[in-house]
């Protein structure tokens, strides 16, 4: 019987639950003997000219090995989008947290002491701390482009697009800036070998991308850099490739002639690791009173932070603008602006949560305006199953989808009609604790980079299997999932399968893990490699069985002559004894797939205090056939947790001077166990035809659906008071303010 | 100053700076790296260990304060039969971990939780783990793991 589709406990866990993982900071590699410790001196000011840097006091501090500034660095400048981003700022700093100097000390505890003694003379400049400030353009971050708007797309709108509509609504929706903040902060260790090669241990999602970035930054060949990914304590998109810091560390290790270790502090992580979301989206939605939407317009403004590291974010939001709906007329535009804040890049969903939040809020606004149930408005406008494959007006090619079914399943599981009756009852009795129901239907894109992935399978002489994947898991449990697939395909027990990844010397060509691509591309690559190995083995087994290869089949873990159960079996070990059995493939057929689903959130809002409690969340997330329900559900749980947190709690705030005011975990609100309910999962599996496994990605899906579901629920709870919209996060103060404003207006 | 701390049954003695945190003593002097540092504000709980049987965040305890006391870390946890502790087994069975970074602290906090309340309700588990942050699991399966270890029903 196939183990695929059954709940299999993870092979990763034994080490993690007994000895803990081996994260960068835990490394005790011999090559790191004598390593010095590194700390970046970071700007405490959002925008300033650097008049001078005096490192003499720091250099005289106990244990200091070196202090480096921009004046020391002899690295070629790098372009970030259309501007130059310095490795270490030497002339101008553009956000609080920007690296200005690097301190190396013999002991860890000497770092902070020495870093404080680096004396930087800053001459403050006018600060651009908001999107509006950036668009006003009174102060420019970069003189060269002469504007703070560093990317513009679309925007040639039809003035008559909404002429046929009975109802037209426009609303600006803030998708607030959040911090990915994996529990393991960023870290690296590096050492140059006698052979002139740099070995870099890095907490990253993509060793191979990191190798390219670091080699390019250092001006050396890719072959001269080896990146090794140890256990990684979460990434959420913010650990894609390599940030500037590892390049500077590699340079410093060479200059100092010593291995270097670096782990940032949590406060550094919150201001210096890239942030996510940070969009301001204006939706215009128009249609008929029967619920039909006729036209939709989305205008995206992306706050890119101080350096535009991920200009694909706003265009990905445009691509996914219409979500699960078939709208006759669609228009989008985007602008990306720079501000004196931490750079923004990928975070769990990267562009799709923002699109979903905008359209799903717009659908609720439209429903409220025409007085129709939000579920019904969605039903009227869904893309129908018979329309797939469906090319959206923005150019996305959706593979398969059962959107009506997903919504109906969560509404049935949640007892929607009963919940609406309870809501009405509370309103009639004047209960101060209001009930709110929020729906979000979503489609997202996985493997959206359209790149491929590598896979290699080797049968060892004892019949065990070693497989190398270009994917790079960091908590997803992909080792277990891939081992299950190979076990099923090769008939080899899971405990005889070893999955390896994350070392560029072992896997030179790969893309890695982001965009929920690992199973559909990395898994397909291993499927293809194993197929090739089976073909090689059949020919060898045929010789041993004295039969034609065409008559030999793999069954029950061995090779037999088809139709002759008494023949053989020839084992994998026997075949592997004949010749090396291995295949190294690149699965390049990967086209994006489009997972989808629907979420229903139930909240209680205390209208006297503004406090929101999430009572239930019911989620249907369809990513095609499930290999391991254990890890599949785990990914959904995690996604729900992070998505709910954005709706209710999380925001990275800056004051008017660009000072981050949420720069520790005492201020930045991670969601905690008592703030979440038990999750209610509804199952659904709609395969895709776009890869060998029929699977789509699940890593980001639940984040994408849950944020607007909870956000809509909060607004719904207050709708009888006249509240039509409030921005996330729905903190007690903001909710109380919305209630107060609505009461005044009425 | 010189401190002497019994860690997982073994006495570790060392000369330390006064400001040395227990978590760094455990990780660097005792060489036990399961205990992690996740923040600098005692917010995340990744560094939770048992000090004389009670859970503490070892980033907020000076090594000097633990002088002469007994510390248990994840590496020192054992079941009655010498194998996995019931919570280690339950975290694996219930998929109560993903990246694993919070897990040592989460398990140690759960040991303490069950020592005080052997049959908690799900809400009591959630409340008891409020000081331990997880970014991966959404907590659902962590609650299941603690319920499983206490011999109670789980909600998969």
Description of the structure:
The complex is a heterodimer of chains A (746) and B (156). Chain A is α+β, with helices and mostly antiparallel strands. Chain A is 28% helix and 25% strand. Chain A is built from 18 helices and 30 strands. Chain A has a seven-stranded mixed beta sheet. In chain A, strands 9-17-16-15-10 form a five-stranded mixed beta sheet. In chain A, a hairpin with a 5-residue loop joins strand 18 and strand 19 (397-398). In chain A, helix 5 crosses helix 6, helix 8 packs across helix 9 and helix 9 runs parallel beside helix 17. The mean pLDDT of chain A is 97. Chain B has 156 residues and is of the alpha+beta class. In chain B, 30% of the residues lie in helices and 15% in strands. Chain B has five helices and five strands. Chain B has helices at 22-29, 86-93, 103-116, 122-128, 140-149, and strands at residues 2-7, 10-15, 48-51, 54-57, 70-72. Chain B has a five-stranded mixed beta sheet, with helices on both faces. In chain B, a hairpin with a 2-residue loop joins strand 3 and strand 4 (54-57). In chain B, helix 2 (86-93) crosses helix 5. The longest helix of chain B has 14 residues, at 103-116. The radius of gyration of chain B is 15 Å and the shape is globular. Chain B starts with a strand and ends in a 7-residue tail after the last helix. The mean pLDDT of chain B is 97. The interface between A and B is large, with 55 and 57 residues.
């Amino acid at each position: 019987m196939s183990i695929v589709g059954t709940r299999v406990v993870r092979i990763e866990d034994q080490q993690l639950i007994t000895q803990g993982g081996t994260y960068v900071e835990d490394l005790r590699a011999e090559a790191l003997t004598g390593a010095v410790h590194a700390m970046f001196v970071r700007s405490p000011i959002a925008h300033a000219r650097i008049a001078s840097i005096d490192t003499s006091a720091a250099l005289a501090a106990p244990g200091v090995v070196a202090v480096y500034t921009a004046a020391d660095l002899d690295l070629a400048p790098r372009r970030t989008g259309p501007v130059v981003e310095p490795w270490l700022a030497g002339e101008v700093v553009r956000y609080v947290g920007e690296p200005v100097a690097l301190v190396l000390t013999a002991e860890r505890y000497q770092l902070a002491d020495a870093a404080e003694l680096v004396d930087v003379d800053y001459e403050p400049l006018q600060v651009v701390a908001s999107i509006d400030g950036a668009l006003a353009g009174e102060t420019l971050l970069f003189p060269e482009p002469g504007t703070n708007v560093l990317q513009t797309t679309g925007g040639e709108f039809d003035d008559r697009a909404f002429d046929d509509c009975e109802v037209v609504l426009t609303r600006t929706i803030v998708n607030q800036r959040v911090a990915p903040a994996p529990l393991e902060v960023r870290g690296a260790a590096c050492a140059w070998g006698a052979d002139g090669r740099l070995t870099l241990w890095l907490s990253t999602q993509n060793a191979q991308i990191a190798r390219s970035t670091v080699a390019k930054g250092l001006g050396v060949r890719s072959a001269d850099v080896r990146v090794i990914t140890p256990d990684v304590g979460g990434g959420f998109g913010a650990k894609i490739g390599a940030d500037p810091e590892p390049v500077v560390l590699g340079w410093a290790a060479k200059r100092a002639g010593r291995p270097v270790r670096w782990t940032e502090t949590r406060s550094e992580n919150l201001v210096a690791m890239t942030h996510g979301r940070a969009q301001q989206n204006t939706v215009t939605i128009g249609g008929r009173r029967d619920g039909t939407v006729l036209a939709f317009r989305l205008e995206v403004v992306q706050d890119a932070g101080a350096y535009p590291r991920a200009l694909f974010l706003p265009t990905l939001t445009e691509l996914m603008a219409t979500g699960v709906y078939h709208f006759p007329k669609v228009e989008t535009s985007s602008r990306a602006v720079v501000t004196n804040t931490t750079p923004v890049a990928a975070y769990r969903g990267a562009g799709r949560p923002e699109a979903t939040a905008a359209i799903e809020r717009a659908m609720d606004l439209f429903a409220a305006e025409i007085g129709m149930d939000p579920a019904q408005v969605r039903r009227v406008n869904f893309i129908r199953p018979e329309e797939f494959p469906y090319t959206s007006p923005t150019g996305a090619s959706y593979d398969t989808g059962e959107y009506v079914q997903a919504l109906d399943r969560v509404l049935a599981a949640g007892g929607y009609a009963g919940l609406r009756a309870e809501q009405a009852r509370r309103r009639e009795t004047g209960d101060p604790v209001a009930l709110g129901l929020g729906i979000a239907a979503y489609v997202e894109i996985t493997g959206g980079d359209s790149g491929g992935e590598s896979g290699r399978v080797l049968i060892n002489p004892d019949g065990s299997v070693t497989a190398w994947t270009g994917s790079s898991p960091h908590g997803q449990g992909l080792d277990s999932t891939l081992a299950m697939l190979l076990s099923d395909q090769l008939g080899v027990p899971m405990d005889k399968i070893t999955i390896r990844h994350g070392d560029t010397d072992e896997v030179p060509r790969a893309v890695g893990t982001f965009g929920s691509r690992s199973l559909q591309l990395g898994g397909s690559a291993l499927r293809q490699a194993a197929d090739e190995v089976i073909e090689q083995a059949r020919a060898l087994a045929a010789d041993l069985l004295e039969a034609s290869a065409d008559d030999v089949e793999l069954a029950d873990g061995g090779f037999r002559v088809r139709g002759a159960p008494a023949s053989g079996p020839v084992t994998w070990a026997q075949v592997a004894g004949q010749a090396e059995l291995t295949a190294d493939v690149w699965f390049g057929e990967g086209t994006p797939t489009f997972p989808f689903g629907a979420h229903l959130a139930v909240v209680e809002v205390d209208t006297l205090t503004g406090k929101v409690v999430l009572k239930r969340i019911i989620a249907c997330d369809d990513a095609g056939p499930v290999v391991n329900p254990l890890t599949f559900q785990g990914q959904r749980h995690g996604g729900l947790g992070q998505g709910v947190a954005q709706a209710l709690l999380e925001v990275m705030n800056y004051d008017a001077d660009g000072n981050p005011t949420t720069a520790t975990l005492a201020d930045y609100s991670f969601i905690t166990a008592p703030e979440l309910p038990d999750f209610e999962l509804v199952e659904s599996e709609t395969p895709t035809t776009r890869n060998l496994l029929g699977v789509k990605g699940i890593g980001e899906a639940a984040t994408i659906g849950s944020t607007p579901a909870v956000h809509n629920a909060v607004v719904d709870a207050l709708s009888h008071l006249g509240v039509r919209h409030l921005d996330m996060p729905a903190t007690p103060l903001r909710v109380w303010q919305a209630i107060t404003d609505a009461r005044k207006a009425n | 100053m010189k401190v002497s701390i019994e860690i997982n049954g073994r006495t570790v003695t060392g000369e330390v700076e006064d400001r040395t945190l227990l978590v760094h003593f455990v990780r660097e002097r005792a060489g036990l790296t399961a205990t992690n540092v996740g923040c600098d504000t005692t917010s995340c709980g990744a560094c939770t260990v048992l000090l004389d049987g009670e859970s503490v965040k070892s980033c907020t305890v000076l090594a000097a304060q633990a002088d002469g006391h007994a510390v248990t870390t994840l590496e020192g946890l054992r079941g009655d039969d010498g194998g996995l502790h019931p919570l280690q087994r339950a975290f694996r069975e219930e998929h109560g971990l993903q990246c694993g970074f919070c897990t040592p602290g989460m398990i140690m906090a759960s040991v303490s939780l069950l020592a005080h309340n052997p049959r908690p309700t799900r809400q009591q588990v959630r409340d008891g783990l409020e000081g331990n942050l997880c970014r991966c699991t959404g907590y659902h399966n962590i609650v299941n793991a603690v319920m499983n270890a206490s011999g109670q029903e789980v909600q998969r």
